[in-house]
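[audit] Reproducing an earlier prediction to check determinism. Same input, same settings, fresh worker. If the tokens differ from the archived copy the diff job will pick it up downstream; this log only records the rerun itself.
[audit] input (300 residues):
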Amino acid sequence: MISALQHPYLVKLYGCCVEGNQLLLIYEFMDNNSLARALFGSKELQLKLDWPTRHKICIGIARGLAFLHEESRLKIVHRDIKATNVLLDKDLNPKISDFGLAKLVEEDNTHISTRIAGTYGYMAPEYAMHGYLTDKADVYSFGIVALEIVSGRVNTIHRAKEEAIYLLDWARLLKEKGELLELVDRRLGSNFDKEEAMVMIQVALLCTNVTPALRPTMSSVVSMLEGKSVVEEIVSESSEVLDEKKLEVMRMLYNQLEDNKMTEIQEQGTSVDEPWAAASTSASDLYPLHLDSSYWNKRD
């Protein structure tokens, strides 16, 4: 099925090897590694992604997902969209990779109830909590990635013995304050299209709506990002109301991170310099006190 999925924004599978303990998948070579390394890697590994390139990458990911959800003969839910799984070719075109958690959706099914697997910070709430899987779970994950592209910041910052800081929370608060452009990566300076940046952030907030039905389809996302349709109105949610003190804490932490003053911040259990090494997780990792290993072994 993976080899049958041919699209400019999906990584090509050329072949496989199943010989003894040699279980290999052979993909096309991607010169610039992952989007995660380009944005969050150590200084020598980061790429200087200007605004037009970031905009192109965001639209490319959206087009790849629109193909999987709406245009392909086989409807696929990827289940693990994140910056690590977006690879960049020599021209910095994005390609969605790693279909290890992907699910085939039959046309008659409104949703799939499935064992929860994915990456913490990118999973839609209805899926992470209840295993309720539709293509809107990918839409949510795309929204998180879009915020990372605009801001150049990791989606989750864990602090020792303190509450984690979430990029989505910060974006929602800045929306309430009317200061969304503060999200834009400081490395860009003033060299970015303000209108495009606003659209990208607003689309990301639409995609990360708590209510799945209020999230747009990926074809609508492409249309909005390309300026072919007006961005839909964002429905405010009570969870978006955060206090001014939390905004200041978020602002301080992100600024310190960008100034390389923080050395112990971790994202998804790994250092900020190597977020692409973070493994996907299952619900048993997210809820270890509630679900023991014997439960998941039975489910598997």
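[audit] rerun output stored. Observation attached for the diff report: The chain has a mean pLDDT of 79.
[audit] end
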